[in-house]
Amino acid sequence: MSAVGLLARNELRRRWRSGLVVVLLIGIVGTIVLATAAGARRSDTALDRFNAASRSSDLEISVGMPTASQIASFRRTRGIAAIARLRGFAFALQLEDLAIAAPLDAAIGNRVDRSRLVAGRRADPTAPDEIVIGESLAGRLHLGVGSRFPLSTFTPAQVTRALSGGGPEAPGGPHVTLRVVGIDRRPLDLGVRAASGGVVVLTPAFHRAFGGRIGAFTDVLRVKTVHGRADVPHVVDAARAIFGNAQTFGTQGVGIETEGPRSAIDVLTLALWIVTAIAAFAGLVAIGIVLTRDITSAEVEQATLRALGLTRRERAAANLPRAALVAAAGALLAALGSVALSPLFPTGVARRADPNPGLHADWTVLALAIPAVAVIVMSIALLASWRSARSASFDPSPSTYPATSEVLRLAADAGLRPVATNGLRMAIQRGRGAGAVPVRSAFAGAAFGIAGVTAALVFGSSLAHLVATPRLSGWAWDVSVEVPSRQVCRDAADHGVRRVPRVSAVALVCAADIEVDGRPVSARGFRNLRGDIGPVVVAGRDPRRANEVALGSETLRALHKQIGDTVRVHGDERTARYHVVGRVVVPPIGELQPMADGATFTSAGLLPLRDTGSNETDYRLLQFAPGTDLHAARERVAALPRVKNALLASTPIEVSRLEQIDRVPVALAILLGVLAAIAVAHALVTGVHRRRRELALLKTLGFSRGQVGATVAWQATTLGVVGLVVGIPLGVVVGRVAWQLVADSLGIAAEITTPVAALAVLVPATLVLVNLVAFVPARAAARTRPAVALRSS
After folding, report:
1. What average pLDDT does the segment 7-15 reach?
2. pLDDT digit string (tens) for 191-227?
3. pLDDT score recorded for residue 695
4. The predicted structure's pLDDT at residue 259
5. CA 625, CA 368: separation in Å to the nearest integer?
6. Nearest-angstrom CA–CA distance, 749 and 585
7. φ and ψ at 66, to 5 degrees?
8. Do 116 and 218 meet the contact criterion of CB atoms below 8 Å apart?
């Protein structure tokens, strides 16, 4: 063992510079892999941690104007952890879906729905004119700390007339000017409700100051349950038993508040795990190539050491102490680097949700990954050392090719010039002895990089197609309008919309809040008045009979149901069982609605579940003939006397959140492109260095400097062509699978587009890039001096 120790110490002293290079490579690759893995884990838990820190509600219930005894009875319901009671006053709002309410107790912001202060300060509870608003409202209305927020209000008498079926009136209540003293963030500000500005919570003093002068529609209870969603069905049943007779009674789950960010965070997490896996694989290949080449660089010495009496095991063991030191130092560097990069994660909406952004050490990732890095590096070193020590019959002569490849024979028969055939030979044949080069790893690196770029192009193209195609987000029509109705789901009057020029289809849609197997969701009922308009079907079909329902993807997942099952649906009037016939994108009609959480019926199927109030709103959906100027058509529809809120398609919040991660595929494509360029450059540099004798022979046989350089360029072109042939089909498959996973997460149909034009550009761009990479090695090859190269070999 003394000889082994002597050799090991000599290796440490003699090759410390190359060892340092390997340590840096392990550290860089490990840093990327560990940081993205930890970032994926933080992203995945960000919203749950934000909800836990905020004590977010699990249920919202409209209860009318309840008595104190009713509230006390409800508080005793099993499964309720905390309740906050707010009063919804009648404001004339610029953003119709903006929720503004005043607390009637001290629970909101303390025991329920805590917010995170982003700027300014908290509102003084004794000041009726102070408010703290969410970031989304501040951004939409361009408000900041110190801004004024004027509001018009309705009187109690006006609210009474409205609830009794009276027509619209001008605001007759006091004008209120609120002062913004702070900007905060709640989990609901990250979801679908962010599109309307979120929620504004007034101070308790506002209720004391204006409670008798401003009308109120209903009290709202924000309920935090003990066991989350598991307690919701029981709590809903208790609420209905106590408050069900209230005219405004209704329940709403938190899907509207959490589904948007959840979908985007799930996609971001998936993207980070993909980056982690690809970076780990690509890094493993790079480390394997460099470390193996580093260990086998002294392969010529093996015959000498064997002649001195060292066994194969002893010769292999001499490399292990150095490899162990390299592995330990690289793993430690990777751990420190991942912690240093931790403030970069999470990104996008997950970063806004993370309650504790900043420097962070994921001890689970570190505990698993650091030993794994050390074991992998030691395994590569052991294998390389054992193979290197096998060189008892090592032939130090620079003979390179045992036989002529069939590909080369075909190329020569096809009439390719000697410059091309020699470049092709250098690319595809590894050789042996001192002239051996890593051919397979070069091809693998090129193909892998091109596959990654192709997958990123397919993913980006599919994302752009989703954004540009409203139908995929559930908007299967051109314009939607609100119309007054005294017979919801029954009134087939078109209010003049069918007489608008170029209208090809019109559908009636009514809405309701229901519970499907105890889960509160929003529902839509369709009835075609002309043509055919319906929900966008992802799987199965849309409802056609009164006892059929189609559910969103998230609803099906939460209920553990599938197409063909039966569900129990409870509405305002009665409970009925419905047959699930499809999975749909829930259409964004009227109120805010998650794409994947809700239900669609026929209008006849939804009608029995609805409260037949006298002051209601239905919707009309309009499809226009192809080629119609939709903006002009919307103006014509908006001018009709009995319609309001004529809307064109808009991008759902879930898709907007998804656009925030469009840089991840780009970053991944750049990373893989760089790794591919490194793999090609490594093969070319190594080939030029190890095949100096060949290049010298070519010059001796009459090759000019330009022809020698062109030979290396042909070698690079061969690597690029093979990488394209293998990488593009592989990348298309990977990109399609990745987008399918994203579409399933969003609950939409996966329409995948292949960017043919971009891929066509990728081909010449790849060939130009590999030849640019080959410039320096080709120039070095062209300068080879035959006499020096032949004498030294």
Report:
1. 65
2. 766 666 678 899 999 999 998 899 998 999 999 999 9
3. 64
4. 58
5. 60
6. 8
7. -75, 160
8. no
Q: What are the angstrom distances between the C-alpha of 570 and each of 254, 305, 510, 618, 726? A: 18, 84, 16, 20, 55
With a CB cutoff of 8 Å and minimum separation 6, the contacts of 772 are none
Distance of CA 225 to the CA centre of its chain: 29
Q: Dihedral angle at the C-alpha atoms of 770, 772, 777, 778, nearest 10 degrees? A: 100
**DSSP letter string over 470-538?**
GGGGT--SSEEEEEEESSTTT----TTGGGSTTEEEEEEEEEEEEEETTEEEEEEEEEEEES---PEEE
| Cβ-count burial 639-664 (b if 16+ within 10 Å, e if not) | ebeebeebbebebbbbbbbbebbbeb
CA dist 63 → 245, 396, 693 (Å): 9, 89, 89
Which candidate, 657, 586, 558, places its Cα nearest to that of 46? 657
Alpha-carbon distance of 273 to 42, in angstroms, equals 12
3-state DSSP assignment of residue 86: strand
Chain-centre distance for alpha carbon 214 = 44
Q: Which of 431-435, 562-566, 604-608, 718-722 has the lowest mean pLDDT?
A: 431-435
Tell me which of 158-162, 240-244, 344-348, 411-415 is least confident: 411-415
Write the burial class of residue 584 (CB in 10 Å: 0-12 exposed, 13-18 middle, 19+ buried).
buried
Mean pLDDT estimate for the chain: 82
The Cα 461–Cα 434 span in angstroms is 47
Rounded Cα distance between 393 and 686, Å, is 23
The SS3 call for residue 759 is helix
Which range has the worst mean pLDDT, 82-96, 160-174, 321-335, 414-428?
414-428
Distance, CA of 393 to CA of 414 (rounded, Å): 38
What is the distance between the alpha carbons of residues 375 and 390, in angstroms, rounded to a whole number?
22
DSSP letters, 528-576, are EEES---PEEEEE----STTEEEE-HHHHHHHT--TT-EEEEE-SS-EE
Report the chain's terminal Cα–Cα distance, integer Å: 34
Q: pTM (2 decimals)?
A: 0.72
Say how far apart CA 462 and CA 91 lie, in whole Å. Answer: 42
**CB atoms inside a 10 Å sphere around CB 542:** 19
Q: How far apart are CA 555 and CA 24, in angstroms?
A: 49
Q: What sign does the CA torsion over 351, 354, 358, 364 have?
A: negative
Dihedral sign computed on CA atoms, order 335, 444, 695, 767: negative
Spatial separation of the C-alpha atoms in residues 544 and 528, rounded to whole Å: 11
CB 120 within 8 A of CB 183: yes
Give the pLDDT score at 710.
Answer: 77
Give the residue-averaged pLDDT of 690-694: 66
Name the β-bridge partners of 200: 100
Token pair for residue 52? Answer: 């836990």
Task: Provide the pLDDT for residue 229.
Answer: 81
Query: For residue 136, which of 190, 88, 178 has the smallest C-alpha distance?
Result: 190
Question: At a CB cut-off of 8 Å and minimum separation 6, what does 325 contact?
Answer: 12, 19
Collapsing DSSP states into helix, strand and coil, what is residue 624?
strand
Tell me the C-alpha distance between 691 and 275, whole Å: 36
Give the separation between CA 160 and CA 132, rounded to whole angstroms.
Answer: 29
CA 229 to mean position of chain CA atoms: 24
Count CB atoms within 10 A of the CB of residue 787.
9
From CA 726, how far away is CA 448, in angstroms rounded?
9
Please give the structure tokens belonging to residue 103.
């607390």
Instruction: Read off the pLDDT band of 785 (50, 70, 90).
Output: low
* Mean pLDDT, range 694-706, rounded to an integer: 68
Q: Cβ-count burial of 352 within 10 angstroms (0-12 exposed, 13-18 middle, 19+ buried)?
A: buried
